[in-house]
Every structure is written in structure tokens, then in C-alpha cells.
Amino acid sequence: MPGAPTIREALDAAQQATDRIEARVLLREVLNQSDAYLLAHGEDTLTAEQAQQYVALVVRRVAGEPVAYLTGRREFFGREFVVNPAVLIPRPETELLVELALQRVPAGAPAHVLDLGAGSGCIGITIAAERPQARVTLVDASEAALEIARANAAQWAPGNTRLLHSDWFSAVAAEQYDLIVANPPYVAEEDMHLQQGDLRFEPRTALAAGADGLNDLRRIIAQAPRHLRAGGGLLLEHGYDQAAACAQLLAAAGFKDVFNARDLAGVPRVSGGHLRG
Fold first, then answer.
1. Which of 239, 187, 190, 191 is nearest to 209 (CA)?
2. What pTM, to 2 d.p., does this model score?
3. What is the DSSP string of 76-127?
4. Which of 263, 236, 262, 240 is nearest to 250 (CA)?
5. Please, are residues 180 and 97 in contact by the beta-carbon 8 Å criterion?
6. If you ran DSSP here, which 8-state letter would residue 45 be given?
7. If phi over 0 gives left and psi between -120 and 50 gives alpha, with beta otherwise, what is residue 226?
8. Percent of the chain beyond pLDDT 70?
9. In sequence order, which residues have a C-beta less than 8 Å from that of residue 158 and are 6 or more positions away?
10. What is the pLDDT of residues 194-220, one digit of tens each?
């Protein structure tokens, strides 16, 4: 884009290299404006600095860098969460885990919830924001991830969240909860998808979990009963082909009414159960 392009010219040029919607998202980021503004001001000329910033973002996107990392934000459950390469990018299918959790945390009633491997905090913070009477503890083994989660908690649920540095249950050894939720690493170490798409840029420690992808799921399921109150529940996101394995692990650990739920694409996405009350 030589010289000083207009908004329309900049978009037309970018759309030759990347997705049309992504081109608009990136220009909105540079201009800090809305789609409506882009439409209404298509003949406005970008400054040289704006044009340079936009080209740089488009080049990075063409190289595969996720849009969420380029903008530093991703929408989840109607809220905008800060993200960076230290955390996984929140995904729509994970909203199922939140919906199932909210069904188990009564509105207007106290409850103690634990979010394991919180990352950006989108799961636990959303639960806390939707259930202000609940107390939600979020833990992660990555200090860099906790820094992002703290920023998101301050934005959306500052009054009823607590964030701790913890390798799964290590920092909450003496505590018990009404509900534990987790979206742990569940991709097999040699899965070819780790070399494709956005996954190439996301933290591998938050994605891969052993030869079959079940290492962390096994650990969480085995240890969860000692951290749940009688009648307490466990909800886990997992891979498309791991529902049967999770059901077996949950039953072996003493969970009752073990179930699996499918996401909007029909993929088995969340498994769970509860301890007998």
C-alpha cells in the first residue's frame, strides 16, 4: 500500500492476502474504531504511521499469528478478555463448560468453585461474574498466565475471585469445593494439529499432555475427590475422542452420574460427575 491509502484502499489491499473479516478486525485495532466507522469513512486517508501499523499486522497474520494475539483480546461469553501468547485463546466450544458450571452453581447462593489451569481466566472469571455470590479460586502453574488472568479478574469479577500460583491442587491442598472445573491440556504430544493453525503459536504446555493426551486429565480426576465436598461436582473439557476414557476414569475415582455433553458442533466436549452426597 504505497503512499497514503484510504480506509477502503487499505482494506481492499489487505483482503488480497487475508480473510475479509480479519482484515477489518485488524484495521479496527489500528484505528480504535468500529465497523460502522470503517464503512462511513471509507474515503478517509490513513496516516503514514497507521498504514505502517496495519501492514505490519496483516503481514503477521498472513504468517499465521492468531488474530487474538495481534489484537490482545478475545470475546468469550459476551465479555472481552485480555490474551497474549502466555495463555490459550478462549474458544466458543469452551462456553459449554461454563454453561454446565452455571447450572450447578445456584444464582444468589454461596458456593466455592475451583478453576484449574485457569490461563486467561475466562472460565472461572465468567462463572464469578455470572454468580456474584460464589467465591471462585483460579490456579495456574504459569506466573505469566496468572498476570493475564489477574487483569481480566480486575475487569470482570474483582470482588469474588482469588488467583493462586499452583501446580493443579498443590496450593489448595487443605481446601474443598462445591465445584471444580478445568480445561486442561489434552492433546497428544505427537498430534499433527500442534503444528497447524493457531496451535503453532499457543503455549505448548497448555495444549499437550503425554502420549495419549490424558496425563493431566488422569491426575485431576484422581485427585479431585479429596478436594470436593459431599455432593460436589467435577467438569472437564477434553478432546473429541476422549469421552469414553474420561468416563472410565471418573467412575474409577468414585464419581456418580457420569455424563458427557456435546458442543454446538456435536463434538463430545465436556465430561463430569459428582460425589455422592
1. 187
2. 0.94
3. ETTEEEE--TTSPPP-GGGHHHHHHHHHHS-TTS-EEEEEES-TT-HHHHHH
4. 236
5. no
6. B
7. alpha
8. 99
9. none
10. 999 999 999 999 999 999 999 999 999
